[in-house]
Every structure is written in structure tokens, then in C-alpha cells.
Amino acid sequence: MRIFLAGLLCLLGLGTSLLAESSRIIASFGQQMTGSAPEAGLRYLAPCCGRIQPVLGASFGSNGSAWLGAGAAITWQPGLSELFLRASSMAGLHRRGTGPALGGPVEFRSALDLGFRRPSGTEIGIGLDHRSNAGIYKSNPGLNTGYLFYSVALK
Questions:
Q1: What pLDDT sits at residue 80?
Q2: Are 51 and 20 in contact (CB under 8 A)?
Q3: What's phi and psi for 10, nearest 5 deg?
Q4: DSSP letters spanning 47-95
Q5: How is residue 105 annotated by DSSP?
Q6: How does pLDDT run along the chain (155 residues), one tens digit per residue?
Q7: How many CB atoms lie within 10 A of CB 135?
């Protein structure tokens, strides 16, 4: 995943603007790829620190799993396009429910969103995320989720 992100950033490096973002609420609905449980998520991006935004996130699976965490996000928009790419990384706490065992309660979450920003400021798109304990526990199977998202800017 890290190599993929680094390569993608290099490809987007020319003609890419990093967006100074306003605060935003992002709602998502998708599928956990391990265990096949539907999952709903909610993220809040706060304005701060120029182009890097603090982010709070939570997700809840139909299998009783849950995750709550905080971290940072950054958004790239190539040229004058409405398309954008947003990467985020968060640390948080995971509740297993009847979902897959991830090794322990502390889990890190990396996400990559590809979306379209409408003139009204709303966004729609697709995303992938990966949760892992980064090897701090003996077992580290990870969990991937694919999702659709919709977001609105808060003014």
C-alpha cells in the first residue's frame, strides 16, 4: 500500500495542486473485504495547518465491529479538474464484534479516496481503506474495506 501511494503521488506531482480545505463531513457505506460485512463510516475533516487537515473517524460494521480514531488527511486536485485524491492516516481503537480478529484493540487506518467535487462543494466518490496494528501485536491479519462516499463542506 505504501509503495502504491508513493507511486501515485509521484505521478500526480506535475500539474497538481494541494487543496486548502474547509471543514467537511464525509459519510461512507461499503463492504469489509474480510468477512463480507457491510460497514458505515463517518469522518470529520477540520480546517487547520494549511493543506494538512486533522481528521476524526468512526466506522460500524453489521458484524458488531467498530473503529474510532484520529489522524491527518491531505487532498490533491490535478490541474483545474473536479477530480481529487485524498489520503488519510489515523490511529484508533477497534472493537471486534463477530468480525475478524485483528490482533488487538489499537489499529491504524490508512485510506485513499478518489472523488469528484461538484461546484456546490459536495463530493462523491469511491475509496479503499486498510486497518492494521502495524505489527505491535503477534497477530496482524489486517482488514480492508471498499466504500462509496458522499461529503459536504461545512461553512
A1: 77
A2: yes
A3: -65, -45
A4: --STT-EEEEEEEEETTS-EEEEEEEEEEEEETT-SEEEEEEEEEEEEE
A5: S
A6: 544 444 444 444 434 445 556 899 999 999 999 878 999 999 999 988 777 899 999 999 999 999 999 999 999 988 878 999 999 999 999 999 999 999 999 999 999 999 999 999 899 999 999 999 999 999 999 999 999 999 999 97
A7: 9
One-letter amino acid of 112: L
CATH class of the domain comprising 2-153 = mainly beta
The reported pLDDT for the residue numbered 12 is 42
Does pTM top 0.90 for this prediction?
no
In whole angstroms, give the CA distance from residue 37 to residue 8.
Answer: 29
Q: How far apart are the first and last CA of the chain?
A: 34
Domain locations in the chain as residue ranges: 2-153
CA distance 134 to 4: 17
Q: What φ, ψ does residue 118 adopt, rounded to 5°? A: -80, 160
All cell numbers assigned to 108: 491504524
Instruction: Region of 4 please: left (phi>0), alpha (psi -120 to 50) or beta.
Output: alpha
Q: How many CB atoms lie within 10 A of CB 118?
A: 10
The rounded distance, in Å, linking the Cα atoms of 13 and 17 is: 8
